[in-house]
């Protein structure tokens, strides 16, 4: 009998987590604006903005996210896309409090993190975040 | 190695049903069977995926990286082994909690397409920076 209650409670918890995740996943949020240098990234900053993606090998939505960001960086001139293997940069992962992959950071031309999205973001949201990061565009 | 996402979802649905039955009936034999299935899944020999292939002949529209779901099957295996130990030693809370954790992960995958096991990877690596997990292709 206890087992049945455990099943019902687990499914209820799963539904709650699932619905919250569906609503929050990939949502672009403002950040407190830490600055990343080209040395931190291991590659140069974009001319106008940089999209930084943290990925791992065991990450399902990382590939789709990579496609979206590559599309966006092709679409918007002066925007570069940097993908970082989270495992080989655990220092950066801890410093930036990255809990999941993919996590996408939007950096302005100076390397200041202006937006952050945990989970696969939608293309329109990335474009909107870029518009905020690159005011003159 | 590539995986058919439909087969993964199908496998997660059966796993959900099996684990829910384990909790309701308290059958350690059924959990032992699911433990073997997790082990086979981690070795990329999932019986549920094979059943799906036998039932559904059409080719998948797109495939995905097989490493995340394989890793998740390994995480499921750990929980199933702990749950099994709980049932066999009569430590009921251990059996219920470990089996419920595996059920939660399987349900989230089946119902929402979220791979909880995959997401745990970065968190585990953050806690255990020294451990380098084998990524077999």
From TrEMBL, chain A:
Molecular function (Gene Ontology), one example: isomerase activity
Keywords linked to the UniProt accession:
Isomerase
Q: Which residues form the Thioredoxin domain?
A: 48-129
Q: Which Gene3D superfamilies match?
A: Glutaredoxin
A matching Pfam family: Thioredoxin
Looking up SUPFAM superfamilies in the UniProt record yields: Thioredoxin-like
Domain of life according to the entry: Bacteria
- Can the keyword RNA-binding be found in this entry's annotation? no
- Keyword DNA damage recorded: no
Instruction: Identify this protein by name.
Output: Thiol-disulfide isomerase/thioredoxin
Q: Which organism is it from?
A: Nonomuraea fuscirosea
Automatic annotation (TrEMBL), chain B:
Keywords, ordered alphabetically: Membrane, Transmembrane, Transmembrane helix
Pfam families assigned? DUF4395
Chain ranges of the DUF4395 domain: 4-126
Q: Which domain of life is it from?
A: Bacteria
Q: Show the stretches that span the lipid bilayer.
A: 7-25, 71-88, 94-124
Among InterPro entries, the record links this protein to: DUF4395, UCP030042
Protein name, please?
Answer: Uncharacterized protein DUF4395
- Its source organism is Nonomuraea fuscirosea
């Amino acid at each position: 009998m206890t087992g049945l209650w455990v099943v019902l409670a687990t499914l209820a918890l799963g539904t709650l987590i699932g619905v919250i995740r569906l609503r929050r996943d990939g949502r672009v949020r403002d950040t407190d604006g830490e600055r990343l240098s080209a040395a931190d990234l291991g590659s140069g900053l974009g001319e106008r903005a940089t999209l930084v993606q943290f990925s791992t090998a065991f990450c399902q939505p990382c590939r789709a996210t990579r496609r979206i960001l590559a599309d966006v960086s092709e679409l918007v001139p002066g925007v570069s896309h940097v993908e970082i293997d989270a495992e080989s940069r655990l220092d950066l992962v801890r410093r930036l409090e990255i809990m999941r992959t993919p996590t996408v950071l939007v950096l302005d031309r100076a390397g200041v993190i202006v937006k952050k999205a945990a989970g696969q973001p939608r293309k329109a949201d990335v474009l909107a975040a870029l518009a905020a990061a690159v005011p003159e565009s | 190695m590539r995986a058919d996402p439909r087969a993964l979802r199908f496998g997660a649905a059966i796993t959900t049903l099996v684990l829910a039955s384990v909790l309701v009936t308290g059958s350690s034999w059924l959990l032992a069977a699911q433990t073997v299935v997790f082990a086979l899944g981690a070795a990329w020999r999932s019986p549920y995926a094979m059943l799906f292939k036998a039932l559904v002949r059409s080719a998948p529209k797109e495939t995905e990286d097989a490493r995340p779901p394989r890793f998740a099957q390994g995480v499921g295996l750990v929980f199933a082994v702990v749950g099994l130990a709980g049932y066999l030693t009569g430590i009921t809370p251990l059996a219920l909690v470990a089996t419920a954790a595996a059920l939660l992960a399987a349900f989230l995958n089946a119902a929402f397409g979220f791979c909880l096991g995959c997401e745990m990877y970065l968190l585990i690596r953050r806690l255990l920076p020294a451990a380098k997990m084998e990524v077999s292709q």
